[in-house]
Amino acid sequence: MELLTAVAISVGILSGVWAWISASFGLITWVGFIGCTSYFASGGKFKGLKKSILANLSGVLWAMCIILGTKYIGGTYISYILTGFFSFIMCIQAKGKLLEFIPGAFCGACATFGAGGNWSLVIISLICGGILGHVSDMGGTFLSLITRKKEF
Q: Is 0.90 topped by the overall pTM?
């Protein structure tokens, strides 16, 4: 079986399992899918898992800085200023190897905003989603290998 088909089967099955598990444990299902998407967008494999999770978590941090800064500093324009500043930070941090995946930071920030600042559930759901992506990827690779036609 070709790799893409095998990964699609693995992702399909494990996404259904994730939807059930996340609902059962009160996690944020859609945030987990953002973590999974971030994993694949970062290039996959263990390196992509590490890269996407670290970037996602940095985005959660910067989003909370925007949320809390807006709340405690107040003022009409402060949220715009903080959004601009921390968007810059999410890009410039990519100069460091550990945080080089800029889209992952924005995924983490967007998930945090979308979840109303519930950072603890966002973090757990993003990490679970990244793991979901990695396990789906490995499962697809395994399925492809065991079903590949042998050429003589």
A: yes
